Amino acid sequence: MSRSFGESYRVGSTSGVHAITVFCSWDYKVTQRWATRLQHDNIRTQLKELLAEWQSRQHRRSACGQLRRVAVLGLVWLLCLGTTLGCTLAVYTFSELMIKSPVSAEREAVLLLLPLVVCLLNLGGPYLFRILAALERHDSPVLEVYVAICRLFSEKQLKRKGKPEFDIAGNVLELIYGQTLTWLGVLFSPLLPAMQIIKLLLLFYIKKASLMANCQAPRRPWKASHMSTVFISLLCFPSFLGAAVFLCYAVWQVKPSSTCGPFRTLDTMYEAGKVWVRRLEKAGPRVSWLPWIHRYLVEDTFPIYLVSALLLAVIYLNIQVVKGQRKVICLLKEQISNEGEDKIFLINKLQRVYERKERSRAGRTEEAVTPPALLTDGWDAQ
């Protein structure tokens, strides 16, 4: 993720990027026709992205417009959070009813009721969120992905002539959602990553064929490097870390089922590791290093704090390096500006010296051309 940030976001300002893209982007080593066409398309797309970003910065709202927009965004966020909490409470309530219900024919119906509620929430929730997202009216495609938008094709769009646009934001979020479900379910279904790989391969080629045959390019340009950074960031923080926290809580705190499963005789899944270590200790000296690793690297919290401290130190070092690079860039810009002023001063001084020499040369030429009779008449007149 840090490498993606370094590739997509510049250290300094973006002033002069348009000129750099126009005059310095072409690779003159490219000779094949298909490669030149591809490079031409890439430069054109970059220019579209830069111009769209520049236009979005030019259109600024008034104070009243900004306050109105903040109020709308706050209301939308409150509705989204309320909907999410309501769905969570609904799932929790039905799960508690399922656990507490006595063993009978009604229990079978309750067991089917919870998956039905979850499916209904999964089907109806996205449509509600799309309606709320339509009120926000974001202009930036990257911001649309951050707040979980770019929308399904409406009836009005389908009635238009021409091909529909490919929903980039929706497909990105579907990838993140599928990967999150895989990380959440890998503890309970170890073969789930294999199924996910097969599913992604099939969907990739199906969507590629559909994109090339049925869709057109989006009206608003999407910056590929920024979109890749957004995708990796969302995949890291909410998705991977959320799944990791959930799985850690399930392993250390949640009591397994007492009727089925490999952990039914234990209080937590983590105790299975302790039982395995006790067996290894009794197995002999050949595997004595495995209990040592479990005791000093898993149960002891000092290595975790040490790794966290090293990670924070590396992050701090990278931040300071970026700040230093920004300072160096500012100093270089000042140096270039000063050198430009010095050159202008020297050019003006040289121009004045040249004009002075030209005037003196013109004066000597006039004296040399003046006839002697005019000079004599001048002395007589005096």
UniProtKB/TrEMBL annotation:
Main location: membrane
Gene Ontology terms: cellular component: plasma membrane
Family to which the UniProt record says this protein belongs: Belongs to the TMC family.
Keywords for this protein: Membrane, Transmembrane, Transmembrane helix
Keyword field contains Plastid: no
Subcellular localization: Membrane
Record membrane topology: Multi-pass membrane protein
Official protein name in the record: Transmembrane channel-like protein
Residue intervals passing through the bilayer: 75-97, 109-129, 227-252, 302-319
Residue span, TMC domain: 149-225
Chain coiled-coil ranges: none
Organism superkingdom: Eukaryota
A GO term for molecular function: mechanosensitive monoatomic ion channel activity
Naturally occurring in which organism (per UniProt): Bos indicus x Bos taurus (Hybrid cattle)
Family annotation (InterPro entries): TMC (IPR038900), TMC_dom (IPR012496)
